[in-house]
Amino acid sequence: MKTRDRIIHSALALFNEQGEPNVTTNHIAADLGISPGNLYYHFRNKEEIIHSIFDQYALDLTVGFQPEAPAESDQQRLLAYLDATFQLMWRYRFFYANLPDILRRDAVLQNKYLTAQQSLKTNLFAMLGQFRETGWLDMEDEALASLCSTLKLVASSWIFYQSAQAPQAKITPAVIYQGVLQILNMVSPMTTDKGRAVVGEIIEHYRQQMASASA
Amino acid sequence: MKTRDRIIHSALALFNEQGEPNVTTNHIAADLGISPGNLYYHFRNKEEIIHSIFDQYALDLTVGFQPEAPAESDQQRLLAYLDATFQLMWRYRFFYANLPDILRRDAVLQNKYLTAQQSLKTNLFAMLGQFRETGWLDMEDEALASLCSTLKLVASSWIFYQSAQAPQAKITPAVIYQGVLQILNMVSPMTTDKGRAVVGEIIEHYRQQMASASA
Amino acid sequence: MKTRDRIIHSALALFNEQGEPNVTTNHIAADLGISPGNLYYHFRNKEEIIHSIFDQYALDLTVGFQPEAPAESDQQRLLAYLDATFQLMWRYRFFYANLPDILRRDAVLQNKYLTAQQSLKTNLFAMLGQFRETGWLDMEDEALASLCSTLKLVASSWIFYQSAQAPQAKITPAVIYQGVLQILNMVSPMTTDKGRAVVGEIIEHYRQQMASASA
Amino acid sequence: MKTRDRIIHSALALFNEQGEPNVTTNHIAADLGISPGNLYYHFRNKEEIIHSIFDQYALDLTVGFQPEAPAESDQQRLLAYLDATFQLMWRYRFFYANLPDILRRDAVLQNKYLTAQQSLKTNLFAMLGQFRETGWLDMEDEALASLCSTLKLVASSWIFYQSAQAPQAKITPAVIYQGVLQILNMVSPMTTDKGRAVVGEIIEHYRQQMASASA
DNA sequence: CATGAATGAGAGTTCATTCAT
DNA sequence: AATGAATGAACTCTCATTCAT
C-alpha cells in the first residue's frame, strides 16, 4: 500500500475510534511511523485527508449500490442493499458523528456530501419502487416519498443517535444491526401480506446476526 | 440579568451559531465585554458552562411537558407538545449538532442526558397512549412502542440531520417546522379516520407556520 | 480573636500544610469563611501576611529565649532551650521549607530575617558559654565558635532537609524530636565526663518523646 | 549543541539565577531565541525539563564519585571528593534552594532523589572508613555513622542555608568554599594528630581558594 | 468592617503547518 | 519521498489584587 493510502487508512481508523477533533495530524503520522513532514508531503492539510476519506466513501457508495446489480431474487437484493448501507456507515462512522462541524468549515465538502445524499435518495427510491412493483408494498406515490425520506433520515442519523446513547460513543457492529432492524420495523407496517413474509424473514436474519455479534 | 446568567445566555447563543468546539471561553467573555477572569469566577471551566446549559435544557424539558397540563382539547394538547418539543430543540440546537463529542468527554453529562432521554420517552409514550384511547390511533402495543422509538429517534436527530444538509449548518425556524411535519407524516398512516382528520388539520397548521417563517 | 489575627493564624496553618506557593489568598479567605476583599482590607497584599507571620515568629523568638529566665538547674534550662527552638521551627515550618524564594523577593524581610538569625546566634553562643563555665564542655574559643555555627546551621536547616527526605514534605513532631537528638549527638563528643552524663539523660528524654510522638 | 541540550542548559542557568518557580517555559524559550512550541517539541512539559536536569545531576554524581578512582594520595582523593561535592552543588544550586516544593509535586522525582541521597551516603561512609583505616580518624562505629549523617546534612543544606543569608539568594563560589571549610571544621576535632596535619593543610588550601574567589 | 464581582496579565500547553535538509 | 526540528497563534485556566456597594 502506498503511503498516501496508508495515511487515509490510518486516519479513518483513528477518527472512528476517537472522533475526528481528537485526532491530530501528529497522531496519524505517529500511528504510521512516518514523520509529520511526510504526511504533509502527501496532503496539503488535515482537511484534504478528510476529503480523501470522503471521496472513498462516495466511491464505495456508487460501487455498492448498483441497482442493476444482478441478484438471485428481490429478497437477496434487499439484503445486499441493507448490508451495504450499514457497512458503509460502520466503516465511516466518525463522519456521521461529527457531520455538522466537519461540513460547516468546508463548503466544498458540503457540496460533495449533498451530491452523495442525492444519489442515496435516488437509489433508495428506486429500490422501494421496485418493491411496490413486486407487490410487497402497497402505497401511493406521496406516502412512498415520505417513507423514503424518513428511511434516509433514520439511516443517516442512526450512528449519531446511538453515539449519544452509548457511553464513550462506542459503536459496535451490534449497534449497526440494530439500525437495520429499526429500518425494517418502519417498513413492515406498509407491506402487503406477501411482503410481510419476506420482511419477517429478513428481520429474523438480522436478529441472528446481531445476537452473534453481541456474543 | 446576573452575570452568571448572561454568560450562559451568551455561550448558548454562540454555541448555536458557531458550534461549541469553535467557541472559546475568551470569545464568550469578549462577547459580553467581561474579562476572562470574571468568566472563570462564575464557572470553574468551560465544561461547567455546558453543564449549566444542559441543566437549563433539562428543566425546560420537565416544565414544558407536563402531561397533566390542562388543554382545550386533545388536539390543542398535541399542538402544544409538538411546539414544545421542537422549540426546545431550536433553543439548544448546538447540543444536538455535537452530541457525540460533547458526551464522550464527560461521563456525568452522559448520564444526565440519558436520564433526560428516558423521561422524554416516557411522556412521548404516554401521549401516544392517550391518542389511542381517544380513538385516533389504531395500533397494537408492540407497534405503538416501535412507533414511539422511531419518533424519538427522528426528533432527536432532526437538527443533526438538517445541519448536515444546510450550508454552514445554519438552522432556521423553518427547518424546525419541517421537522414537525416529518413527524406528523410518520404518524399519519397509523391513524383512524377520525385521527386522520385531526392530523390533517395540524399538518396544515404547520405548513402555514413554515411558510410564514420562510418568508 | 480579631479577623486580622484569624487571617494570620489560618494562613500559617495552610502554609505549613501545603507550602506557601500553593496557598492563594482566596484559599485563606475561603478557609476563614470571609471574602477576599475583607482579607485585603486587613492586609495590603499576600507579602504583608507573610511579614506579620514573621513578626510573630521573631517575637516568639525573643520571648522564648530569655537567657536570664530562671530555671531549676542548668539542665532544665538546656531542655527548655531545645524545646523552645524546635517548637518554634515546628510552628513556622513552612518558612524553613521555602526560605530562599520567600526572602529573594522581599529585601525587607531578608533584613528582618538576618537580624533574627543574629540574635539566635548570640543567645546560642551565650548558652554554650555557660555550659563551658559549668564544666560540661571543654573547648577552646575557636572550637566553640565553630560548634556554635554548625549547630545553628543544623537547626536552621533541619526542616528543609527533612522535607526533602519525606514523601509529600510531610513533617511530623517526631521529625522535630529527631532534630533535637541530632543536635545533641553533635554536642556529645565535646562534653566532659560530667557533661556527658547530663547530655545522655537529655538524649534519653527526647528518645522517649519521639517514641510517644510516633506511636 | 543540540536544541534539547541547550534547553536543559538554559533552564538550569535561569533556575539557578532566579529560582525555578520564577522561570516560565516562555522565559526559557525566549532566552534561547526559540519558539515555545519548539520547547514543547523537545519536552512534554516543564516538569520533564526538571527531570532531565536531575538525571544529569544524578549522572554527575555517579561519575564524579568513583571511590576506586586512582589518586596520588589519600589526601588528593579527599580533595577531589570535596571539590566534586561542592561543585555539584554549585552547578545545581537551584535544586537545593527549592527542594521541598519541587519534590512535593512529583513523587517520581522524590524517589530518584532519595536514591541519589542513598548513594551519596554510601560513598561518604566509605570515604570516612578509609580515613579511619589510614589512621586519620579515631572513632568508634557509632560515632562515625553519626558524623557521617551530620556531614551529609550539612553538605545537603549548605546552599539552602546560605541562600537565606545572602541578599537575593545570590550564591557565589566563595560561599561554596566556605561550605567545604565548614565541613572540614566539623571533621577536624575527630582527627588523630596525623589526620589533623592533613586536614589543616586542606583547610589552608581552601582558605586560599576562597580568598582568590572573593577577590 | 465586610462583601463578592471584576480585572488582566500571564501561566503552561497544543497543534496545524512549514521548511531546510 | 521523507525527515524532524521549528513556528506561532490560540487555548484553557489562575491568581494577586481592586473597587463599587
TrEMBL record, chains A, B, C, D:
Question: HTH tetR-type domain: which residues?
Answer: 1-61
Q: Give a yes or no for keyword DNA-binding in this entry.
A: yes
UniProt keywords (A-Z) are: DNA-binding
Q: Which GO terms describe its molecular function?
A: DNA binding
DNA-binding annotation, residue ranges on this chain: 24-43
Q: Which domain of life is it from?
A: Bacteria
Gene3D superfamilies given for it?
Answer: Tetracycline Repressor, domain 2
What InterPro entries does this protein map onto? Homeodomain-like_sf, HTH-type_Tx_Regulator, HTH_TetR, TetR
PANTHER family named among the record's database cross-references: ACREF/ENVCD OPERON REPRESSOR-RELATED, TRANSCRIPTIONAL REGULATORY PROTEIN
Q: What is this protein called?
A: TetR family transcriptional regulator
Look up and give the organism this protein is from.
Answer: Enterovibrio norvegicus FF-454
